[in-house]
Amino acid sequence: ATTLGASAAERGRYFGVAIAGGRLSDTQYTTIANREFNMVTAENEMKLDATEPNQNQFSFSSGDRIVNWAISNGKQVRGHTLAWHSQQPGWMQNMSGTALRNAMLNHVTRVATYYRGKIHSWDVVNEAFADGSSGARRDSNLQRTGNDWIEAAFRAARAADPGAKLCYNDYNTDNWSHAKTQAVYRMVQDFKQRGVPIDCVGFQAHFNSGNPVPNNYHTTLQNFADLGVDVQITELDIEGSGSSQAEQYRGIVQACLAVTRCNGITVWGVRDSDSWRASGTPLLFNGSGQKKAAYDAVLAALNSG
Ligand code: G3I
User: Which residues form the active site (predicted)?
Assistant: First the structure.
């Protein structure tokens, strides 16, 4: 096929994009997004600070704008994200203990209930593990409510929206030999053994020269899939340019296609100029909306084999 979404669909997968609500009035942006992608993630609009700016006062208008754009254009939606240490609203940032635990669970329940039936996959918990070699959980106000906060969030999400796939999502979990990857793997293994409702693991996949695509990427995806979860590449971007960038993108697509349970790939923005790290030109379209070599490599990989 001739677009990313249609080509991925022929391989039984989706190809998604992060959408920023503020850009939906840019017709070059929406033309590309509508043509190329069949899955949408709100870049910021469904996070905690956006959806519950005051405790128990929910605000869905920004998220709805993106969800409605996606659905009216025939696309599915990944929900991002229900529980995270970052982008918490001010009222939550200084909470602790039982009050925070209950506020977190209420948030998960209310947001997942509101969007019930519209979400393909939820990033239920985002970035709960520490970087570096410790393999520990990240210290956060949520973690300090007790080590079981993650499974509590997954159980609340399942109860609220039984039809959505429930994902754990993180970054720097791409290299199989890294402690963070191993720690997330052990958590997912434990959840599957104890019946905690988890369906998928999201690999954010933010790469640059200091954090290149590892040679064992396929091994990582396959090992997680072998635990009995789907794997999804959820926020892909790769800093660089030209053929070097294109070959890294190609490798990611090939790794996903080689893993039966790798359902789909989402890139974290449309054009380089839309990226959270625009100076790294990490995306598939340049600032003028033209296809880059990386785009051609991704499309070719989706269409080969
Ligand atoms: O909307 C306000 C604007 O009103 C204000 O004038 C401006 C001043 O700084 O800030 C604007 O908000 C910014 C928002 O993006 C929208 O552009 C925030 O400051 C900024 O922090 C926020 O950054 C987002 C970041 O998450 C926050 O953690 C990025 O857009 C978004 O791409 C990024 O996405 C994360 C994923 O959620 C999780 N994984 C990593 C990924 C990249 O950091």
Answer: 235 (nucleophile)
